[in-house]
Specification:
By secondary structure, this protein is of the alpha/beta class. It is built from ten helices and eleven strands. The protein has helices spanning 3-15, 18-24, 29-43, 59-84, 97-114, 127-135, 197-205, 217-225, 235-243, 272-288, and strands at residues 48-50, 55-57, 89-95, 118-124, 141-144, 153-168, 189-191, 212-214, 231-234, 247-250, 260-268. Strands 3, 4, 5, 6, 9, 10 and 11 form a seven-stranded mixed β-sheet that branches. A hairpin with a 4-residue loop joins β1 (48-50) and β2 (55-57). The protein is elongated, with a radius of gyration of 32 Å. It starts with a helix and ends with a helix.
């Protein structure tokens, strides 16, 4: 059923005249009759009772009119809303909370300002969920700490960062450096930075050695700023706090060399033309701020 057919039915219910309906719709009476007959055949019911004096709706016609009016209203609203939308297309970008805070928002601010004809949806989530969303095409591109190869995706290495152990400058700490033997002396706060950090931490300090465990960067930073303990974090996050003197870096030893945090960009190849300028903006920002 087309909009023209639906509109013809609604107009005929208002005019109760085939000739007047044809006049209002700038068409012929035969076209009006054909459209109504087509709807009736599709529904399998007669919608109008016709005689030489009048045209009246049948009970089936009354029922159909109720929904036809809603469909007509929704159709016109859709046309009106779409005509007001000035965006050329939409791009969905996802990244972990910590990367939005430390780099991504800064990297894309100028791009957002320069491309106001594009609509953006920004998602903050853990890496494994972001990877799943990219595969399911719920994201056009994403920044992830967990590498994933997929036939439909482009996969790029963005940067690597060392982990550092930090605390608030005013927190009272043991004079010794943190080691696998004395870690229990430190009020250790564990933030989950995913694998391979998780594996390294578990094998060197025991996963149960912390007294607070969490998985959100903003909460971890609040804990440290409130002098509740010490914790490992990527240097990209700790750097501004260390440079301003809010945090201090603490020496530590471990049985194995700490892993590097690896950051990856992944995007759907089908939307490459739209995504590449954004990828370039991110990679240039990371390069300029090493």
């Amino acid at each position: 059923m087309t909009f023209e057919e639906l509109n013809t039915f609604i107009t005929l219910t208002q005019t109760r005249s085939f000739s007047r309906t044809a006049e209002l719709l700038f068409t012929s009476q035969s076209t009006v009759s054909f459209r109504i007959k087509k709807i009736e055949n599709q529904i399998g019911r007669t919608l109008f009772e016709r005689n030489t004096r009048s045209i009246e709706l049948t009970p089936a016609g009354e029922d159909f009119l109720f929904y036809a009016a809603q469909l007509d209203s929704l159709y016109r609203e859709a046309i009106h809303t779409a005509s007001l939308n000035s965006f050329n297309y939409k791009v969905t970008i996802g990244a972990p909370d910590s990367f939005w805070q430390s780099m991504l928002l800064k990297a894309l601010t100028n791009y957002f300002l320069a491309n106001k004809d594009i609509s953006f949806k920004l998602v903050s989530e853990h890496s494994f969920l972001l990877n799943q969303m990219i595969v399911e095409e719920k994201l056009d591109m994403g920044v992830s700490f967990i590498p994933m190869r997929h036939a439909a995706l482009e996969y790029l290495s963005l940067s690597t960062n060392p982990y550092v152990l930090v605390a608030h400058k005013s927190l009272e700490l043991p004079a010794d450096k943190l080691t696998p033997q004395n870690f229990s002396k430190f009020p250790l706060i564990y933030c989950d930075w995913a694998s391979p950090f998780y594996t390294w931490f578990r094998e060197n300090y025991c996963i149960g050695s912390h007294f607070i465990e969490l998985d959100r960067t903003w909460l971890f930073l609040q804990m440290l700023q409130n002098k509740l303990g010490v914790g490992f974090m990527p240097l990209r996050i700790a750097k501004p706090f260390i440079e301003t003197g809010k945090f201090i870096s603490i020496e530590f030893e471990s049985y194995e060399t700490p892993p590097l945090e690896e950051i990856f960009i992944m995007y759907n190849r089908k939307r490459e033309n739209r995504i590449l300028p954004i990828v370039d903006a991110i990679m240039q920002y990371v390069k300029d701020n090493k």
